[in-house]
Design a protein that fits this description.
The chain is of the alpha+beta class. The chain contains eight helices and five strands; from the N terminus they run ααββαβββααααα. It is globular, with a radius of gyration of 21 Å.
Length: 218
């Protein structure tokens, strides 16, 4: 699947041959997606392979959007992380951010590899070969995606404060909740509970903080 190269940013178009080469080399389990961030509502401008089920013109993914909100043009590349898809398949992924001559992030080269076949082979081998220790079951918590990015954002925000959480006053925690709210963290399902645990308050306190912060901005 492809798009006319003259409609893609020239800097991003340079990565198209690499996308095709990787998809051809790694086979049907591999998908390469090139995103262009100038239009996030339809950021996928090139696809080689089909694993996730996206198409050209699909919007930016939530993990990518959160990374950009957190780091801006200083966003680091992320290699070899795992992500569980909605249909239960596990994928191994890497995100390489592409910058223009001024250092501004303009897009991303995303590698997604479907682990279904490898996991099936692993299960078959474990069932047929003798072994003493049972292999630990893979749990959803070990996989990245939104939960991993959310944890990263909360941790990064807390690290900007010199006080440990145990010594923080309400004013400190209000500032942390406000910073997280500005990053869009509370749009993510389950974020209130994660933030409450991180700053040592109840989920109801976090809701009260949000009401207080948002009321002050009106």
């Amino acid at each position: 699947m492809s798009q006319a190269l003259n409609s893609i940013h020239p800097k991003l178009a340079q990565y198209v041959p690499f996308a095709d080469a990787l998809a051809e080399t790694l086979g049907a389990s591999c998908e390469i997606a090139i995103h262009e961030f100038s239009h996030p509502e339809s950021s996928v401008v090139y696809l080689a392979g089909n694993v996730v089920g996206r198409q050209i013109g699909s919007p930016i993914t939530e993990p990518l959007q959160l990374q950009l909100q957190l780091y801006g043009d200083n966003v680091p590349n992320i290699y070899n992380f795992t992500r569980r898809l909605k249909d239960g398949r596990n994928t191994k992924c890497s995100n390489i951010f592409i910058r223009d001559e001024q250092g501004k992030v303009i897009g991303c080269f995303c590698i997604n590899y479907d682990l279904s076949l490898i996991e099936a082979m692993k299960k078959f081998t474990e069932e047929w070969l003798p072994h003493e220790d049972k292999t630990e079951n893979v749990s959803e918590e070990k996989y990245g995606g939104i939960s991993h990015i959310l944890e990263q954002i909360i941790s990064d925000t807390l690290s900007r404060y010199s006080k440990p959480v145990s010594l923080m006053q309400k004013e400190d925690k209000l500032k942390i909740v406000e910073a997280l709210d500005e990053k869009g963290v509370f749009l993510i399902k389950g974020a209130v509970d994660d933030v409450a645990n991180a700053i040592g308050v109840s989920r109801y306190s976090v809701y009260n903080y949000l009401d207080e912060i948002r009321a002050a901005k009106k």
